[in-house]
Amino acid sequence: MKVSDILRVKGGTLFTAQPDEPLAQAVQIMADKDIGSLVVMAHGDLVGMLTFREVMACIVKNGGAIGETLVRTAMDDHPLTCTAETELDEVRRMMLERHARYMPVLNQRTLMGVISFYDVAKAVVDSQNFENKMLKAYIRDWPSADEADVKLG
Description:
The protein is of the alpha+beta class. The chain has helices spanning 3-10, 23-33, 52-61, 71-74, 88-98, 117-140, 145-152, and strands spanning 16-17, 37-42, 45-51, 102-107, 110-116. The radius of gyration is 22 Å and the shape is elongated.
């Protein structure tokens, strides 16, 4: 299974922020849209990733306030990325190693979408459920010993 399989199901709605916009504005978008991350774009290029993890770290650093902080101050400016052709096993390994909950998907420099650890886990569980269902159907249709003897004899 590849990242493209997740993107196909997930759809293409993306929410972005710009590095020089106020962090408070970005947090408001995240809260309004009930999303855990924003892709930070500048001049059409991915320049960072803002998640609630970075927001919380920034708030703690600022003594409990967002203040006049800009997105660029809080964002991860070296986010983990993948392509639509990346295998899900590789994505899981990468996300686990970096403790990343969100990963932008790029085609060259074009942003194709964002996948979350939840998206990856759901895809794996759905795939396993489908495989289990097919195996159970296969076993259920397995001929009994008597039927096998009749066919052979």
